Amino acid sequence: MISLGLALTNLLPIPVLDGGQICILAIEALCRRDASVGTRTALADAGLTIVLGLMVTATYFDVRALW
Prior knowledge:
67 residues; mainly alpha; 3 helices; 79% helix
């Protein structure tokens, strides 16, 4: 069950995850040109911020439940 949950989470359309990479490649295929390095970097930074924010939030609520 953990592996299935991790696989589904990995397919979310967040740029750092595999689902985000699939979305970026699909958009590039539709536009028929590659995204610039700056655009890819900005998307990766935004995705990393989202993932880190989710991790901090989950950790906060887990620690809060222990107290």
